[in-house]
Write a structure and sequence with these properties.
about 180 residues, 10 helices
Amino acid sequence: MKSRQESIELMNSYIESESLRNHCEMVALAMEAYAKENDKNEVELEEWWTAGLLHDLDWEKFPEEHPNKAVGEILPELGYSEAVIGAIKAHAPERTGKEPESEIERYLFACDELSGFMHAVSLMRPTGFEGMKVKSVTKKLKTLNFAANVPREDIDKGALLINKTVNEHIQFLIGVFGS
């Protein structure tokens, strides 16, 4: 298992955009929080965090090959676990053909798009995540031209995959990002 520092250095070597780095860090935080909620052991907790951090590793440099470049070449050569690689593969099933099945895969799929969307909502608020309410996020979800590149159906599918309502998932992530 790679250390967190090694994974952060890897992410930074592939991703230059501050906003994409921020997104990856947010998804890592969300995954770590869900791993704790689901009583994962230390190894699993690290895998969940790592999958969140590295899920968009190849997005900037290899957008046409994302995430296949990362899961087919970069991460296996560096010795990342099958759980991490499988989760990253399953976060983009339309590109890889791998649907999210295992628990880590389902949670990464669920956390990816919603984390990005909630970040966009936070940017519209003077206090960011502080004091954010589920209702303000769901209201923006209904505004289709707000963060229009975020597929609402993926947010719905993600919540279903982790057996939560969209509102429960949003509330949990407000707690993660607002602290």
